[in-house]
Amino acid sequence: MKLLHTFLIGTLAVIGAEANTVKQTIQPNYMVDYEQLPSEAQRFSEIFSEGMFYGRLRSNWFFFEYKDDTVDRQSHNILGLGGSLIYKTAPYAGFSASAELDYTSAGTGLDDQSDDVKFLRAGKDVISRYNSVNADGKSFAVLSQAYLQYEHADFKTRVGRQIFNSFFTKSNDSKMIPNTFEGITLESKDIEKTRIRAAYLTRQKLRDHDSFHSVIMYDDRSDIDSGVVNAKWDENDDSAIHKGLSYTNFEKVDQDKNPGLVVLDGYTRALMGSDLKINASAVYLKDLFTTAMVELNYRFDLGNGYILSPGFRYVQQFDDGAGKIGGAALDGTAATDANGGSAEGRGEYTKADSVDSYMTAARLVLDKDAASLSIGYTGIADEADFITPWRGFVTAGYTRAMARYNWIANTQSYRLRGTYDFGDANIISGLKTYLSFTHEDYDEKKNAGLDANVYYFGLIQDLQEVPNLSVRFRTEYVERLASSSDDHAEVRMELNYLF
Q1: Which of 76, 112, 282, 385 has the most CB atoms at less than 10 Å from its CB?
Q2: Neighbour count for residue 16 (Cβ, 10 Å)
Q3: Nearest to 142 by CA among 107, 170, 182
Q4: Of 20-34, 120-134, 318-332, 400-414, which range is least confident?
Q5: Strand 261-268 relative to strand 194-205: parallel, antiparallel, unpaired?
């Protein structure tokens, strides 16, 4: 409650003082750009007086409708209201500090929530399900960022709670509260046209959590064993978590339940006159697995304003013990019987006790003025599912549709996507639109009946009359090819006011 009071008082004060100032903007991928930063303090006593506040009021309304409701699924909608308040001190001798307080509430009564929070889909992230089932309500505040920073020339390091956007780890701030980490991060731009980043992340806080937890462990303990209701919702319960890498299975082999996550990430445009961009990234979890990615994108100027950009991505996952603990399947069914798996689950994978796997991806992007058209492909090897519970997804940018998890073993996906910026075309200021069609072809042995066509439309409107206000609308329809009774539609509406 003290955090909530602090958030409300600080928000009102900052709005009153700086409502007409544009200090930050939100990219289409939800990353924040700071248009203004505190100036260098000349004396230590000025680090707070010359610091700056950044605020955000937001609402997210999620509608989810099944073609046929059953006892296992319910159509619903849920509204979240809240925002964030960020403070950055002025830098002094290269040192500065930042803190972010976030708040979300889904207790307005304006929506039609499910009686049981287990039925919530995308909208689950506007509340904490763990708090809700443990009688702590559907509102919470959290200090999601609090770090000390040192910056000198082209080098920067941060220690503490922070956002770390890399290929594998992202804030993914598309709900109410960002995904953040605790740890130390480094960044260097000393090499021309090149950025290199590294991190050691000790804990993670998912978007619907108010506490930090293991970066990988899924808590599978019963209410009696854990002493709380639904302990899994207070640990790493990301939709892409590997449920075989669980509390119970880690106990059996004396595996560290909270191993640090090592991240390396970077890109360079130093080759071939900046037309070639090379991205590379890797994550490492001791005694579990390593995953590495390399991506090439090249820009061809075809003349008359046309730009063609082919891209290729390769991702390799190396087993280092995770397979024997939890098996090749994210749902844990490929583990041994003693570790919660089954003979049927193991029979669906070519090597059930290994998480070795790889992905190939390719795309073509054609840009002309305000319009862009792309076609993409991803193919997952018939080996293991990819483990990526840090809100960075291996198929993103190529074939991933909204809320889709198409990195299960032996899955092929194809996507056609078009975008148009009405603002760049001088038609409607601040309006961007997105349209895509995705076909997902799953392995029938592993995921019978899950093949789907996914239709998506989205728009972003920055309101010129109110410079700090923007509207986002996204809708998606999933057509199941095996049974139309599994079809479902989703609508997301968001308002953001930045100050």
Answers
A1: 385
A2: 9
A3: 182
A4: 20-34
A5: antiparallel
Residue 35 is encoded by which pair of tokens? Answer: 């248009």
Extract the tokens encoding 411: 């899955």
Residue-wise pLDDT for 240-257, tens only, equals: 999 999 999 999 999 999
Q: Which of 356, 199, 174 is nearest to 264 (CA)?
A: 199
Please indicate whether residue 12 or residue 113 has the higher confidence score (pLDDT): 113
pTM exceeding 0.85:
yes
Amino acid (1-letter code) at residue 97 = A
CA–CA distance, 182 with 283 (Å, rounded to integer)? 16
pLDDT computed for residue 273 by the predictor: 82
Alpha carbons 220 and 268: distance in angstroms, whole number? 42
pLDDT of 390 strictly over 90: yes
Q: Which pair of tokens denotes residue 257?
A: 């339940």
73 and 105 in contact (C-beta within 8 Å)?
no
Q: How far is CA 426 from CA 366, 423, 433, 465, in A?
A: 20, 5, 14, 16
DSSP-derived 3-state class of residue 178: coil
Choose the weakest-confidence range: 78-92, 98-112, 159-173.
98-112
- Distance, CA of 374 to CA of 431 (rounded, Å): 20
DSSP state of 220: -
Q: Which token pair is 317?
A: 């996952």
Q: At which residue do the structure tokens 């509207």 appear?
A: 471
Q: Tell me which amino acid residue 337 is.
A: D
Residue whose entry in the numeric block shows the structure tokens 């009021």: 57
> CA-to-CA distance for 230 and 328, rounded, in angstroms?
25
Q: In this structure, what DSSP letter does residue 152 have? A: E
- Residue 6 has a pLDDT of 52
Element (H, E) at 223: helix 223-226
pLDDT at 193 over 80: yes
Q: What are the residue ranges of helices labelled H in 73-190? A: 129-133
* Whole-angstrom distance, CA of residue 450 vs CA of residue 223: 32
The answer to whether 382 and 352 have CB atoms below 8 angstroms apart is: no
- Those residues whose C-beta lies under 8 Å from the C-beta of residue 18, and which sit 6 or more positions away, are 53, 499
How big is the chain by its Cα radius of gyration, in Å?
23
**Given the DSSP bridges, would you call strands 431-441 and 32-34 parallel, antiparallel or unpaired?**
unpaired
**Which parts of 89-205 are beta strand (E)?**
95-105, 139-152, 155-162, 180-188, 194-205
Q: What is the mean pLDDT of residues 356-374?
A: 98
Given a contact cutoff of 8 angstroms between Cβ atoms, the answer to whether 204 and 218 are in contact is no
Q: pLDDT for 433-470, tens place per residue? A: 999 999 999 999 988 789 999 999 999 999 878 889 99
Whether the per-residue pLDDT at 394 is higher than 70: the answer is yes
